[in-house]
Amino acid sequence: MRRINLLEWRDIQKKERETRFGILASIGLGIMGLIVLGVHVFYQSKIGYQESRNNYLTQEIQSVEKQIEEIEALEKKKAALINRMSVIQELESSRPKIVHLFDELVQRLPDGVHFTRMTQKKDKITLEGMAQSDARVSSLMRKIEESEWLKSPEIKRIVRKDIIEKGSDSERSISEFKLEVTQTFPKVEGEENFDSEEDEE
Description:
The chain has helices spanning 7-108, 134-146, 194-200, and strands spanning 113-121, 124-131, 150-164, 171-183. It is an alpha+beta fold. The protein has a domain at 89-186: Gyrase A, domain 2. A four-stranded antiparallel sheet has the order 1-2-4-3, with helices on one face. The relative contact order is 0.08.
């Protein structure tokens, strides 16, 4: 009876199985590597696309902000021009009023009285000056009452002072006064009524 040696055949079969396993394992690892690489490339492309969109949005935002700054600068220039135009219009409309105001002050000023300072805030005028006596100040107030351009004179301060005249040792008394009056604007024939025009606008 013949004896068959199966050891070599088993070894060969075992080596073939190991070889197939190694090949299959290598193929599996290769496929996994390709899958991982594909996923990585996909997400990198997504990240790159999003970064490009972010850069585009950032540039657009900067452009819009620059335009907003330019618009704000133009708005400031516009406001400044409007203010200048308003001041010019106000000066134009107040020219005849100023002329009448100074004309009235000169006409109503009695002898022995002179002004040292005048300030105006809207229609309120403050006059400061000196008079030879309190009676002269009273005369000034009466004349202002008679004016069409000035009204409601009100004494804020009146002080008697003794002064020494230059070139001599003699003393004389004067009255220092502070007077507040209200300016009025009666319509004068032949002149434009600027106030009424402004109200209509």
